[in-house]
Amino acid sequence: MDMHIHMSYCTFHGFKLLASNYLGIYNHHHLYGEIEDLLKETEVTPAHVAEELMKNEDVDTALEGLVKLLKRKKLEGDECEAEAEKKPAAKRQKLGSN
């Protein structure tokens, strides 16, 4: 039997916990503000965030990699939304020309 497990996306609080566990960051970092904003706009799992944080032991490099990942995911999400908005317009045009 197939089962679907619904898991939530990573929040800023979850990210801070992962950052402390994987990178030893226990206080504020200058990239936290940007990461917080991107997490609000992007759907990424905690596992994906943890995977990105484990790629490098250097804190700055790891967090910059995470920012790049979140920006890429946000861009992909924006492109999907734009594509979804185009489809109904294309259908209306098709129906209108018939």
Helix and strand layout, with pairings?
Layout: H1 12-23, H2 32-41, H3 46-53, H4 59-97
Helix pairs in contact: 1-3, 2-4
Structural class: mainly alpha
The number of strands is 0
Low-confidence stretches: none
- The radius of gyration over CA amounts to 18 Å
The coarse overall form would be globular
Task: Specify the biggest β-sheet.
Answer: none
Strand proportion, as a percent range, falls in under 5%
Average the pLDDT over all residues and give the rounded result: 86
Distance between the termini: 46 Å
The percentage helix is over 70%
Number of helices: 4
Order of helices and strands: HHHH
Tell me what the structure shows.
This protein has 98 residues and is an all-alpha fold. Helix content is 70%, strand content 0%. The chain is built from four helices and no strands. The termini are far apart. The model has no long low-confidence stretch (mean pLDDT 86).
Give short descriptive properties of this protein.
98 residues; mainly alpha; 4 helices
Brief characterization of the structure:
With 98 residues, the chain is an all-alpha fold. It is built from four helices and no strands.
